[in-house]
Amino acid sequence: MFEPQNSLEALMQAATADPGVAPAFYQALLEAEIYILTPDTPMTPGRRRSLKYQEKINVATVEFQGLKWHPAFTSKARISDYVKESEICLGAVARNLFDMLPHSNFWLNPLSECQKPLPASEIALLTSGKIFEVLGRAT
Fold first, then answer.
1. Fewer C-beta within 10 Å: the chain N or C terminus?
2. Phi and psi (nearest 5°) for 84?
């Protein structure tokens, strides 16, 4: 049974049952901290650090239906559900991650009971604000 860890996860879960909640979920997602896996990034275990300006990082990808996706997580607990060994991750405001990795597909909480693929086309609508117009026409 999926137990939300934060308000973003509660909205994500609610939006799967009620499409009317989708705008609130998308708005919360833009401002929420999410996590991506960044193997090979120099990091001291148990510590936090900031990225340096224009620092290159290796962001994990998985292949699904012929596309590459960045696994992304709405809470640290979701990372533990996905990877069983210690893994370096980067936490950042989703809007900033989407800007940092343009034209990328993200998969929120893969392997979780509450997951959501976010193809690059959907992220482009989200970051431009046009997704709210599209959702408004659908209701």
1. N
2. -100, -15
Give the confidence band of 72 by pLDDT, cuts at 50, 70, 90.
Answer: very high
Which amino acid is present at 93? V
Alpha-carbon distance of 95 to 99, in angstroms, equals 6
Environment class of 132 (CB within 10 Å of its CB; exposed 0-12, middle 13-18, buried 19+): middle
In Å, how far from its chain's centre is CA 74? 6
d(CA 71, CA 111): 10
pTM over 0.85: yes
Distance separating alpha carbons of residues 92 and 31, to the nearest angstrom? 9
